[in-house]
Design brief:
binds zinc ion, binds coenzyme A, globular, eight-stranded parallel beta barrel, TIM Barrel, two-stranded antiparallel ribbon, alpha/beta
């Protein structure tokens, strides 16, 4: 039987948070519905953060109030602090993502807290979640390189993975926030983290700034990782990390996995109309490396005349 992979869609949070255009809650819900219709079953639906810091994520409680197919889709919300925990759980979120950037400067720029303080806050959120039936997943951001402090030492990532694992994090997600990792580094960082947490608990979050995200995913697959974050059409960037572009595109990850014989529950072609819809919504041209080819296949399948050229 084919091995199953989890593709976790982060476009509605990581993708939208850096867009010039702020979508309404109902547009965000329309985007989420289309993703779910295309087969997405794991999705980060928004963040409960200060609307002054990230105006694009204002109204996330409204989004959570109306999420489609709640029984069959696992929705997560990102939170930066205990206030976020309270807002998210009041809004009905049952899976929460905390973010610990593993460098001092990135934490200060992102959430105005020191690294040690952020680690402490993440730990107490994880412990509280365990007591209240809320799954808390821990992101280790800038795990390969920080835009302010340069290369991240793998031992630092291991140390914080250990702390999050000890606190009882449901998952530990190794995040290449600015898209600077290479496959050798991926192996090195995963090797360290696997000493403190089981590989089944690990997930990876890559941005495709330098075009190496799929190669990094392949390195992580070889290491045993079976869950990856991605963003539809490669939508995204990071408002707090200069120079970072979007996440690896969902259609690229799904195509890679499905063509290797793994099961994602998603047909790559079904993502084509979703990319088109979100291009119209955001006014941004989207599409990962495989998108042109996929779009041609989709047009052919649906009898749309070729655009030539
Ligand atoms: N959700 C909504 N509002 C929040 C909040 C949360 N989780 N946490 C704090 N606030 C509010 C406070 O109530 C306060 O509101 P007020 O100005 O009306 O009194 C305001 O935000 C400032 O709070 P303060 O505690 O002084 O912190 P700050 O100004 O240093 O901001 C964060 C800290 C964490 C709230 C802010 O930096 C943030 O939301 N960052 C998120 C960044 C992000 O999403 N990054 C990408 C994903 S990692
Ligand atoms: Zn990201």
């Amino acid at each position: 039987m084919a091995e199953t992979f989890r593709v976790n869609e982060v476009g509605p949070r990581d993708g939208l948070q850096s867009q010039g255009k702020t979508l309404t809650a109902s547009d965000r819900l329309a985007m989420i519905s289309s993703l779910v219709d295309a087969g997405i079953r794991h999705l980060e639906a928004g963040s409960f953060v200060s609307p002054k810091a990230v105006p694009q994520m204002a109204g996330t409680a409204e989004v959570f109030a109306d999420l489609p197919s709640k029984q069959s889709v696992r929705y997560a919300g990102l939170i930066p602090n205990m206030k976020g925990y309270e807002l998210a759980t009041e809004a009905g979120a049952e899976v929460l993502n905390v973010v610990l950037s593993v460098t001092e400067t990135m934490n200060q720029k992102n959430i105005g807290m020191s690294l040690d303080k952020t680690a402490e806050v993440c730990e107490s959120i994880i412990r509280r979640g365990r007591g209240e039936g809320i799954e808390v997943q821990a992101y280790l951001a800038v795990a390969f390189e920080c835009p302010f402090e340069g290369r991240t030492h793998p031992a630092v990532v291991t140390r914080f993975a250990d702390q999050m694992q000890e606190a009882g994090a449901a998952k530990i997600i190794i995040a290449d926030t600015i898209g600077a990792a290479n496959p050798a580094q991926v192996r090195q960082v995963l090797h360290g983290v696997a000493e403190v947490a089981p590989v089944e608990k690990l997930s990876c979050h890559f941005h495709d700034t330098r075009g190496l995200a799929l190669a990094n995913i392949l390195a992580a697959i070889d290491f045993g990782v079976r869950e990856f974050d991605s963003s539809i059409g490669g939508l995204g960037g990071c408002p707090f990390s200069p120079g970072a572009t979007g996440n690896v595109a969902t259609e690229d990850v799904v195509l890679l996995l499905e063509s290797m014989g793994y099961e994602t529950g998603i047909q790559p072609l079904d993502l084509v109309p979703v990319v088109r819809e979100i291009e119209v919504m955001t006014g941004v041209q989207l599409g990962g490396k495989s998108y042109r080819w996929l779009a041609q296949q989709w047009d052919k399948r649906n009898g749309v005349p070729s655009h030539g050229g």
